[in-house]
Write a structure and sequence with these properties.
Elements lengths: L3 E4 L1 E6 L12 H10 L2 E6 L10 H14 L3 E7 L8 H5 L4 E5 L12 H10 L6 E4 L3 H13 L3 E3 L5 H12 L4 E5 L1 H5 L2 H7 L12 H10 L6 E2 L8 H4 L14 H10 L5 H16 L8 E11 L18 E11 L2 E5 L14 E2 L6
Parallel strand pairs: 2-3, 3-4, 4-5, 4-13, 5-6, 6-7, 7-8, 8-9
Antiparallel strand pairs: 1-10, 10-11, 11-12
Helix pairs in contact: 5-6, 6-9
Bound molecules: (4S)-2,6-dioxohexahydropyrimidine-4-carboxylic acid (DOR) and zinc ion (ZN) (2 copies).
């Protein structure tokens, strides 16, 4: 058996569903899923119920997190037109600001220019801004990055025209970064047809030509692979009004290791996309004595029953992959061991980013 050592991976886009969605995921189950997927730090989105748009809501979620997280977690604050005056106070303990420009799960939306301007005026320049922007909203985000001369990070870019526009913006020297998800790299609208609600998420699965563009730009334009881990229960997915979103924390690394095996990217580039760049883009602290041991030669079928996420399913069930996470060590202590469930890090052993001192 071969063992390779990778740095602790960072997922800059995950949904841990606290508060209000604990039947889908919670801090203990979501961070167990993270560790078993090779992630030692995850950044969680604010489209919770209620959403994390005030200092009080964010501090409440941080308190719950501190008691339950098994790996390191940062919480995004959310932008909303009703809470513009809360932004400065929200920023202190948030890892960044998330602005939703397009329709998706949850109530957070910013659809008018004055609110966008207020976000850029009030959110501290030292803290990142991330956007859910699809189609021409990507151009809006690039325009704001240029006009305010400050970084903007684009979440889950999925279309050829979007990634090509971001490539042009980067060539023009604008401070933009972007992530792509494994589900957009490995599934297309043909799979959406086969999977039904289990293949529905925002942005929706795209055409083969869009997917080809993401792979072409993986070598340079793309900064991060992010999971957009968005768990919903099977009952919700079977309902008349299924919410968009799929789990991703436990399948992203095996899928990307499979791509390495197939020669679609190098292991060094995988490490940049899943560890080095996520830390750089979001200014995250190093985690000392932290690493992931993988067996790149392990071949197996992705199975729902093996998952740690509370939702218990993945659109990739049944797929053959190469590469298994064997062990995760976080700050010198074993936090996950594929052979020994007792080694799973305890709830409360993870750290919040930033800490209570704001750093
Ligand atoms: O599919 C999605 N689900 N896209 C999003 O932007 C939100 C997410 C969720 O929270 O379920
Ligand atoms: Zn989104
Ligand atoms: Zn998301």
């Amino acid at each position: 058996m071969t063992t390779l050592r990778l740095p602790g991976l960072v997922d800059v886009h995950t949904h841990l569903r606290v508060p209000g969605g604990e039947h889908k995921e919670d801090f203990a189950t979501g961070t167990a899923a993270a560790l078993s997927g090779g992630f030692t730090c995850v950044l969680a989105m604010p489209n919770t119920s209620p959403p994390l748009v005030t200092r009080t809501a964010l501090q409440g979620a941080r308190q719950l997190a501190q008691a339950s997280i098994r790996c390191d977690v940062g919480l995004f604050g959310g932008a909303s037109p009703e809470h513009i005056d809360d932004l400065a106070a929200l920023a202190e303990h948030a890892v960044g600001l998330k602005i939703y420009l397009n329709d998706t799960f949850g109530p957070l939306r910013v659809e008018d220019l004055p609110t966008l301007q207020a976000c850029f005026d009030r959110w501290p320049r030292t803290k990142p801004i991330a956007m859910h922007a699809e189609g021409q909203s990507v151009a809006v985000g690039i325009g704001l990055a240029a006009a305010y001369h400050r970084p903007v990070h684009f979440c889950h870019i999925s279309r050829r025209d979007e990634i090509e526009l971001i490539a042009s913006a980067k060539q023009a020297g604008l401070p933009v970064t972007c992530e792509v998800t494994p589900h957009h790299l490995f599934l297309t609208e043909a799979d959406a047809h086969r999977l039904g609600p289990l293949g529905d998420m925002r942005p929706r699965l795209a055409r083969q030509d869009d997917q080809d563009a993401l792979w072409q730009h993986l070598a340079n334009t793309v900064d991060c692979i992010a999971t957009d881990h968005a768990p919903h229960t099977l009952a919700e997915k079977a309902s008349d009004n299924p919410p968009p979103g799929v789990a991703g924390l436990e399948t992203s690394l095996p899928l990307m290791l499979t791509a390495v095996r197939q020669g679609r990217l190098t292991m060094a580039r995988l490490v940049e996309l899943m560890a080095v760049n996520p830390r750089r883009v979001f200014g995250l602290p190093d985690q000392a004595d932290t690493f992931v041991e993988i067996d790149p030669d392990a071949r197996y079928e992705i199975a729902n029953h093996a998952l740690h996420t509370k939702c218990g399913w993945t659109p990739f069930a049944g797929m053959q992959v190469w590469g298994r996470v064997q062990r995760v060590v976080l700050r010198g202590a074993v936090a996950y061991d594929s052979d020994d469930p007792d080694q799973m890090a305890q709830p409360g052993s993870g750290r919040l980013v930033p800490g209570n001192d704001g750093r």
